[in-house]
Amino acid sequence: MSFDQLALHPDLLKSISDLGFTEPSDIQIQAIPHILEGQDVMASAPTGTGKTAAFVLPALHLLSQSEAGQGKGPRVLVLTPTRELAKQVSDNIYQLTKYLRMRSTTIVGGMPYPPQIKALRQSLDFLVATPGRLIDHMNSGRVDFSRIELLILDEADRMLDMGFVDEVTRIANETPATRQTLLFSATLEGQVEKVARALLKEPARIQIAGVKIKHDSITQHMLQADDFRHKRKILEHVLSDESVEQAIIFTATKKGADKLAEKLKDEGYACAALHGDMRQNMRRRVIEQMQRRRLKILVATDVAARGLDIKTLSHVINFDMPMQAEDYVHRIGRTGRGGSTGSAYSLIGPQDWQLFYRVQKFVDTRYELTVIAGLEPQQERPKFNAGKSGVKRRNPNVRYKKRGKNVSSKKSNYSKRPEAA
């Protein structure tokens, strides 16, 4: 199937051709016709499958076919969970409006207020925003939603996981009831489905593949590490491979990302850290340096697990396993995108085993451990009495004896491991 068959605006087809795309992806084939018909849509598709264009293309087409209403404010509102994802959506809009006259702006935290206030006073076609900063502007009476025709919730599961359910609901309720609503998410279950039922009207439900998709384009390696020093030696070995064009190394904490980035810079690598404590301008500069290949390595927390699109990223390395099993899929999905292939390495230290088993259960795959000659682990692999998932189950209502004291199973050292941000 070609893009011509989707009945999109000719100027959009020219932009698509300039970008080198010839055939729409599965999510685009299934979602775009429903959106063009004015139907609400809730869709799930794995990362790297053209999901952003699946809503940007039809939104641009619809705007080009109708007259804008009187007044100011946006006609299309896109909510994203992170600043990085907001930038990705904005970049996509910019690329696809090469031959269309459209005005868009981005409202995210970590950026100065005055330019955002000025932009919100204008008539906009697209507004891409993160919920927290948009609510700030709403509280000050700076946002006019009267012209909203289309509300898009991108990475809805991530927004809800980050605690934005009340903000998302409030924003949606302040847009016109006549709006069309699109929800894109890695999963359409649990809280996401509850929000969808509340905000969408008889939506078309599309599931290309769940987040548990096995990345066929990515070669996955699981390596056991005895301790931090052993991890560093394995990391050094992986990075020394000539096949590493660019890599993202994921760590569990912001402090860990900074320390590892500094260490790698001392060793001569073009490297930088990326995490939530950095100012937005610095985060944007780091991402641009990666995209322009001025950096070879990015050491990041899960702030980079979604919404980061670097075409030449050949490797993803989990120096620490993610706290949430589904984030493993999003992390490794940064490579092997758009028809290319990639490699993912996960270093399993003593504190990572339960997280490793959670990932195995989540993706329904039993991973074999890879061993590097000369870097073989000296410790035995921990054994967990866990059934299928491999995670030891303990009754949370029972208090267990430990070193002569009564302690709850919830107060293990493992549970104190900080979550990435």
TrEMBL record:
Domain of life, per lineage: Bacteria
Q: Which intervals hold domain Helicase C-terminal?
A: 233-383
Residue stretches making up the DEAD-box RNA helicase Q domain: 1-29
Alphabetical UniProt keywords: ATP-binding, Helicase, Hydrolase, Nucleotide-binding
Which regions are flagged for Basic residues bias?
390-405
Pinpoint the Helicase ATP-binding domain residues: 32-206
SMART domains per the UniProt record, alphabetical: DEXDc (SM00487), HELICc (SM00490)
Q: Name one Pfam family in it.
A: Helicase_C
**Stretch list, region Disordered:** 380-421
Name any one GO molecular function: ATP binding
UniProt xrefs under SUPFAM superfamilies: P-loop containing nucleoside triphosphate hydrolases
Positions of short motif Q motif? 1-29
UniProt family annotation: Belongs to the DEAD box helicase family.
What PANTHER family has UniProt attached to this entry? ATP-DEPENDENT RNA HELICASE DEAD BOX FAMILY, ATP-DEPENDENT RNA HELICASE RHLE-RELATED
Q: What name does the UniProt record give this protein?
A: RNA helicase
Which species is listed as the source? endosymbiont of Galathealinum brachiosum
